[in-house]
UniProtKB/TrEMBL annotation:
UniProt cross-references to Pfam families, sorted A to Z: Peripla_BP_2
Biased composition (Polar residues): 23-35
Protein name (database record): ABC transporter substrate-binding protein
Stretches assigned to the Fe/B12 periplasmic-binding domain: 86-342
């Protein structure tokens, strides 16, 4: 597939930039969350907190579009005899990634208590509505059904290492299986690996180049970079995102700073309502779900935050910012931040 349809698909996603929410892992702090030392700041030593290249030793040696191809991945090596046409996606962000590449899988998992197709993807790809409606439900991301996967008759299964290392051998008896690393901090390298399995690494690189080009243009126009904070409150859990996270990488790409309280070297840290000051910054991007809305917005410290008092606390959608690390989510989140900062 040429890169022109990809750009068209991402233009659609950009037009929906009022939508917004990325990925997880956490450490339970005591007292005020502990920030990393200053040298842990994103971008030190010229490196990006979210790697922009496929991990070393991963991918295929064959050029794009060439099959058979042998793909080295996080659980070993997989040979694909022909270009896959019936793909089953198991892990976070993989439906997003395939849609960005102009492909609709035949089967997918869902996050707990979430729709099979997140709303931001359904709205970004209305022309794919019929195909998305036909997706086979193969269980929850944390507990995929091998029977349902087999029944969908895939010719490629995509999964990340959270369950992929455990299930790789069993899944490989169903269809060729490629295992990406997973976690929002690895989303770009995982996107390139996933695309390489389809013989479309160059197309994925075009998508990333577009994101980086737009982020660089925004960063170049900043006179004094503000700090940005990312906060999620869902159910009984409240957390802030660290440097090596999906949103942390977007902030770095845009040339934005992070408050000292969020310059830690973990994906996220949990907060109690009494620790809410750690979520403050020049701009605060937050998402709420279920009981998390009351837990956050009715917390005694919420009105005292500088971002809340100053009108720079921006509510965003949970899925693109915090639950789905992929190129369409990244475009929506990046554009939402740019639009807010004006």
């Amino acid at each position: 597939m040429s890169s022109t349809p990809l750009r068209r698909l991402l233009v659609v996603a950009t037009a929906l930039a009022f939508l917004t929410s990325g990925c997880s892992a956490s450490a339970q702090p005591s007292g005020t969350p502990t920030a990393s030392a200053p040298d842990a700041e994103a971008g030190s030593a010229g490196e990006h907190v979210v790697a922009r290249e496929m991990a070393e030793g991963m991918g295929a040696s064959e050029p794009d579009g060439a099959f058979p191809r042998t793909v080295e991945h996080d659980a070993g090596s997989t040979k694909l005899e022909t270009a896959p046409k019936r793909i089953a996606v198991v892990s976070t962000g993989q439906l997003d990634a395939l849609l960005a590449l102009g492909t609709v899988p035949v089967a997918a998992t869902r996050a707990e208590a979430s729709a099979l197709v997140p709303a931001y993807l359904a709205e970004a790809f209305p022309e794919r509505a019929e195909a998305l409606d036909d997706l086979e439900d193969i269980g929850e991301r944390t507990e995929p059904s091998l029977e349902a996967i087999a029944a969908s008759e895939p010719d490629l299964i995509l999964i990340n290492s959270v369950r992929g290392a455990e299930l790789f051998d069993r899944l490989s008896t169903i269809a060729p299986t490629v295992v990406t690393l997973g976690n929002g901090v690895n989303w770009k390298s995982d996107f390139l690996l996933l695309a390489d399995a389809l013989g479309m690494e160059g197309d994925a690189q075009d998508v990333l180049d577009g994101l980086h080009r737009d982020a660089d243009a925004f960063a170049a126009g900043l006179d004094d970079a503000p700090t940005v904070s990312f906060l999620q409150s869902a159910g009984l859990r409240m957390r802030i995102m660290g440097l090596p996270s999906f949103t942390g990488g977007i902030a770095e790409d845009l040339g934005l700073g992070r408050p000292e309280s969020q310059r830690f070297d973990e994906t996220s840290q949990d907060l109690s309502p009494e620790q809410l000051q750690a979520a403050d910054a020049d701009w605060l991007f937050y998402a709420v779900e279920g009981d998390g809305a009351a837990a956050l917005l009715e917390a005694p410290l919420w009105p005292s935050l500088g971002a809340v008092r100053g009108g720079s606390a921006v509510e965003v959608d949970l899925d693109p910012f915090f639950m789905n690390a992929g190129p369409v989510a990244a475009r929506l989140a990046q554009d939402r931040i740019v639009d807010a900062l004006g």
